[in-house]
Design a protein that fits this description.
alpha+beta; seven-stranded antiparallel sheet; about 20% strand
Length: about 170
Amino acid sequence: MATLEEIKALLGEPPFNWSDPAPWVRLEQELGVCFPADFRQITDAYGPGVINTQVYLDHPGHPIRNLGEEIKESIEYWLEEDSAEFLPVSAGSRPGELLPIATAMTGESIFLRVPDGPAAPWVVGVQEMDSFEFVLHEMTFSDWLLAYLQGKDVTVHSHNWAPDRPFFEPLT
């Protein structure tokens, strides 16, 4: 699994550095899931912001860019849009469903697939709205993000948005 240090080496020092677990605990209780540690660690470090002017991250403790509100609105959107047309399984927070956790300026929705069981891993899925293609990446969020930052093909492409090097801009 990619480490926060590997992410920092590409994005620089994190500006947010959230340490209070209370918003995560509330959100996890509401959704009935325990987010993967790597996703929480990266989100706590960088907070709400945009990577390469493309990938938007939110945080459950932020009053405006609130991850919980974004997740709920996204699930509602996918349920209203009859997601069966676009997603291989339903959007939601139950085992096997796709939990929407980020968006991209280029029209992608980024999901974590909720594990079917305690031994199953969390993996990343990306819905590409231009082609209506859904791609499941059998990797953790930190591995997916590191691959994105390195310019590898993980459905969302960074090389067009950060030709010199990856960067992070905080959103307030």
